[in-house]
Task: structure prediction
Amino acid sequence: QAPLVESGGGSVQAGGSLRLSCAASGATSRPNCMGWFRQAKGKGREGVAAIYTGDGTTHYVDSVLGRFTISQDTNMVYLQMNDLKPEDTAMYYCAANGPYDCSSRSWWSEYEYRYWGQGTQVTVSS
Result:
């Protein structure tokens, strides 16, 4: 029924790591632009990373470069988060059926995605 289901969130100390997982159903497109977004309290939804499953092309917001890695395997999409910082604290959402070209022009726009998971909370303490 639900196209996307996230898991893997939790509470960690600064400098720690978490891996988020997103299970996608057959309702999602092949190939697909799939993304991870996050929303901190008092802030808007921010695009964190995206991957085009057709060729593996990835995109990242500057603030997570070198720390986060998005990857995919069949019907799963992952976000490996290393060296977590308190400012990474947010609800993280998986998104699917994004822009057809999954390009720098719009991968980061929440309005370009058709399906969304319910979110998984990530809390990083100092």
In short: The mean pLDDT is 95. The longest strand covers residues 45-52. The radius of gyration is 13 Å. The chain has no helices and eleven strands.
